[in-house]
Fold these 2 entries.
Entry 1:
Amino acid sequence: MSAPADAIVIGAGIGGIAAAACLERKGVHVVLLEAAEAGSGVREFWPVLEALDPALVKTLKLSRRGFKFIQRDLPTLALRQDGRHLLLPRDPHKAARAIVACSPADARAYERRQAEIFALARRLRPWWWETAEAPAGLPERYKAASAQALLAALFESDAVRTTLGFDVPEPFAPGSALALLWRAGQEMCGLQGARALPQGGVPALADAMMASIRELGVSFRSKARVRQVLVAGDEAAGVVLDSGEKIFSRAVVSCLSRRDTLLRLLPTASAGIAQTLRLLSSAPRRSETVAVLTLNGEPGLGGRSSGGAVRHVIAEGEPALEGVASDAPSPGQHRFIVKAKGTPTADAIVAQLERFAPQFRSRVLDIALTTRTLCPPKLLASAQERIATPIRNLFLCGRDAEPVDALSGRAGRLAAEMVSAALQRKARP
Amino acid sequence: MSLQVRATPFHGPAAAASRLNLWEPREGWTVAAVYEDAAQEALAARLTVAMADISWRWRVAVDGARAEEFLARLLTRDPASLAPGEAFKALWLSDGGALRGAGLLARNGRDSFMLVSACADPLWIARAAALFDVKVHEIAEAEGMLAVVGPYAARLLAAAGLDPDLAQLRFRKLFWRGIEVTLSRFGEHEGFEIACSATDAPLVWDRLAKVGRAYALEPAGMRAMDILDMEAGVPRPGRDYRPARGGFDSMPAPEDIGLGSLVDPDHVGFNGRSARAGLPASRVRMGIVFDSDVPAANAVIAEGGRTLSSVYSPALRSAIALAMLEPRLGTPNTQVRLADGTPGLVTALPFLPPPVPLPR
């Protein structure tokens, strides 16, 4: 049995590292457990960041730990079969000028829409970024409308609709219009709505965060897979590792999904009978596949902007995918990373790209695929609902605790606040 | 027009004994409402001995290596405290802490239990049990159950060849002149229950009826049993409260019905425990004896509160009601009045002590 900790964090994903770092900064002694052999538990190959928590970047002083961006504002290039590609920079005026070619009316509507949505999104930040009680000033139509319906009402051009709706999970689902607001509310490198490319990709982010927790004195253990969360009554009391070792603590934070945490790590039905039955019947429905392609030449998809790299988006045909050029693995080679919706085969991905870049297949030297299931969006759930669990002092901090499944770290920061508050309440007589 | 009759194993002899042929539905079963006179039947249970068909009660067998673990999670009391042949009363709650069910858990063996309740909750119990790989199956179809209640209950059973030496909340299986029965003492009236196979039910009835003549045994219908239940002060689901049926419901809380005593504060980890607010009940459950013969169910009490169910008590010769009252009214002998002016007197529960069997 190990010495007890104030808090245990399960999983050194971005959310777990964020939770551990924020807790240690608050004077809470943390043990961070990671099942992997070494290093962090971050296994993210898609290099574009769009939702990284600015408060986390600042609090952990990541820039001083070598975390830098090679491009802070990645425009989107929507590829069209008819060759009339649509380049959408973040600047609404420049984007409107590009949209004019599709539809002058849409160009006018776009500028108005961006201003409205960006303002509304900023007002909603406390709801998604902090622990606000309710979403202030959210128009009812966003709660009920699908993204598809909203965009159809605003724009006439299919190119504009599909490009703007590309990033919405389940765009036909009621309430998915909220995802448009969530996306508009994100901020990278001080730029609202931006997407950024970090130098060294997400591994560099993970390395910088790991450096932060080492400096803070977080106890980190790799090869430490958690088999069970210990529960005393209805309160988390520590963990049991696969090795049988017990580590007691006053709070536990899990980077795993709600489903995995409550079904796999807890005694049967500890989260509640109804809750357990609900989780068992709600298996994840969506997946995404990241393909890392090594090429012997440029991808040939065209459209490189004057500002540097672009994010290519293909919404026509299957699979829908986005791609970005990344650091070349060796001289003479190029790397192109694709994120596709669903679980397409490598061949299907290459075939889709070849529709827009003739002979693309002949340039492919290697392709490596990873697929993961996506957590459903929880845009109307409060931070408390997303992060707390039916077990007292057991919290979630991973992607499943975010409003949208995205690499953010925000849930980790908020989980740390909740743990700290809970421990203070416990300490009071 | 055809009527659907779901007959209990005792339907045949009950029908033969019924003078009025009056039946009522109870948990989907058709049971005798009255044989001749509900008041007379209720008084028989209090003064001599009465026999009632309680086969309509929902009974499930719970079996499996993790049965105890499952029931510890399900119920507000820990089944580890039960030895084979013992039983206790407990509740089960939703995730939100609301009262879903109240019943009795009896332990047959290490991995074998029986749950009995006046209100079925089959889907919840079955789905929860499946999480623990525990088997649940209903036994009311295959088994009949009679209640024998009254001061002469023990003597009647002894005369019939059944040893009545059994403590409250205990049971035992035995062979009774060639048939297997289970003799128990589960009820609130300190009587006995005899469970038997559906096939043997008419024989069991006949044996008891034959011996019972010497003790003025009367068959008692549901109306008489309801009078006894009311006099015992026991709230019944459906009659006095609506059990929660949503998995996350938070109302009614056990304390709202006056059943908080069936939650063991030392038993941790039962479903719904973490959601319980821990607040004291805003109402207390008391009895009211009216200065009237007319029952007053679900009536507003002018001073604060409401009656639940109400019947005429032949033993007290007054209408009585269970009531949820504001705590300041919860002192016995407090005068209250219904909204229509009917006066009543608050009383502690039970209204009457149970008809304890005389020793044989």
Entry 2:
Amino acid sequence: MRGLLIFLAAISISACSDSELVSMQQLSSGAKLYELHCSNCHQADGSGLAQLIPPLKSADYLSKSALNLPCIIKKGMQGSIVVNGVEYNQKMPAQVNLSDKDILHICLFVLQKFPEKPISVTEEALGQALQKCP
Amino acid sequence: MKKILSLFLLIFILSCNQKRVLPIMGERTPIARTENGKTVIDTQYATVPPFVLLNQEGDTVSEALVKGKIYVADFFFTSCPTICPIMKKEMLRVYEKVKGNDNFMLLSHTIDPDFDSIPLLKEYAKRLGSDGKQWQFLTGQREAIYELAEKGYYATAMPDSTEPGGYVHSGGFILVDKQSRVRGVYNGTDAKEVDLLIEDLFILSEEKE
């Protein structure tokens, strides 16, 4: 049931996004990976957890720093971060079990699904950012 | 038409009055005593054993903290990347329902006391939105917490290096009544079960002692 919902969500998202940039396949793969690797903390609806885990839903951080996303997922994050005016300071673990391709699909999904307006970034641009992680 | 309406009303009232009776969990011991020359058998129910732990303020707390209270216990650790954030989101929902009502308390126990220091627990509690009184975050000797989890609350908690975060633990929310008896264990990662827990909290509060 959940799989179907995600699939439908992916279709509805892809219907209103630039199909040249993000394919349905990428989105549905990203949606599945998000559920598996991200939703425990950031929650299925992207709402985060109180002042502990920042939201992805309508997060201003995403529109400001979309290209930071691949390296945050790959390397994790430590220290303070401000999202929508609220400061968060919980360590995010590095996702060591994800391939580069997986990470890019999660980024594409997150950038389409959670901002107020889907953010269009190409897989190539995200992939280049991933190669330059500090 | 009027008859049908009143029939519906009757069914509605009747179904509302049918309250579930919550089971009492754990072993039972029969205790014989003599009353007016006759032997009477009483049932002694299992209770959560006495404990001595520290809360997020560094204060020593014991079972006296929850004396006469209905409370929900759970086990977690702050750096947990798996089920804890979902559990805490759900516990936050329970907290919103009982906030300010003196009958109820919430106790979250860390199973990683080496890492989860008292200042860290305090910060965690504050960021989660807890007042630090009605919802307390407890730590103590690792063995004491694990034993309390398993023997007192029927929950699992142990280190496991193969698990992300290094610990395996059950995501249970344990409902305890005013006499320290466990009355239910609910899956704290399942919103429907947590809805049931919230219902059961109020059923317990109306239960005659």
